[in-house]
Hints:
By secondary structure, the chain is of the alpha/beta class. It contains ten helices and 20 strands. Helix 8 (about 305-315) packs across helix 10 (about 365-380) and helix 9 packs parallel to helix 10 (about 365-380). The chain is elongated and about 85 Å long.
Amino acid sequence: MELTLLGTGAPDGLPRPSCPCAACATARGPWARAATALLIDDALLLDLTPGAVFAAARAGHSLGAVRQVLLTHPHDGPAVELPPTLPPAGRVPDGQVLTLISGHRVRAVPMDAPGTGYEVGSPDGERLLYLPPGAAPAGLDGRVERPYDLVVGDVVGRPDAVARLRAVGAVGPATEVIAVHLDHDAPPGGVLDRLLAAAGARAVPDGTTLVVGEYPVVPDVPRRVLVTGGARSGKSVEAERRLETFPEVVYVATGGRREGDPEWAARVGLHRERRPGAWRTEETCEVAELLGAEGPPLLVDCLSLWLTDAMDRVDAWEDVRWREGGQEALRARVAELVAAVRRTRRQVVLVTNEVGAGVVPATPAGRRFRDELGRLNAAVAAECEEVLLVVAGQAVVLRG
């Protein structure tokens, strides 16, 4: 089965007409995207968009052999002119199955938002799933018999759609996941590629043709990632995005609870509201123990608070205690954590802070914490396949 993406953008396209935002200003040339439409084996067209005939011609195809046109979502705005060679476009009720004269079998899949997804099977047995913008499959209960060969959907806008499909086995290790419906809220260029690669997905230019069922080069998802940055730089958001498409994640909160501190409670609440509901939270500093156990991916937020707890345990803040065994005890605990990062078989994203680039602390204890955190960050970074520095909400790849 051959799939040609006539467009890969949001319904309004990218750039949006008359939009002055930075993303639209840079969406020129190869970064420009027409509204998403899929042409399958020149026989089935999923979503009819303006300029579909010319888009197909540019990709080396014709719409003259199309036998069925199906829409996935309500199309707002002016009516799209139907080329005279195409059959009328329509939507199929959820659950209904169509068998085309070409031999393709199409099933309408219910969504949790307005729209319809389509599962398409070829005469040779390949299967793909196409999801409308802003939607995820609804009613996924038991595990499916086998994964799809290809999933095409709104990975940036609805990462939980991929998580739901993974949870029931519909997306497996060899499933190719293609991001479409890309709007101006998606980061441009290499940043988008990195974000999607962390989800095991990728984006392709308009006009790309894929062979469904052909062994794809699935993006390599780094197993260990360190995300560092300053206060309010966006490092926690960057870390959370890297795991949004996984059905189970353990969020390791090393800050714990602070009774009588409403500002801290507000910070914790903000993080909790931002996380997917399926994630489980562990409030603990026994990170090495979790790294050594089997289980779903871990998000550790953050190492600076873990270090604060570790220094509390050995009374490392006091100068005399530091000289009389505190330093040795702290280094041993840090070495235990670093060794656990090295040995872990779990996927893990660790968040930390950069505190050495600003004002020099006024106290010996403050300078000690700054120095020990710098050493901890360097040691953990050496064990991670990917290291990111987040500045002003922008992630810079330091390694990987």
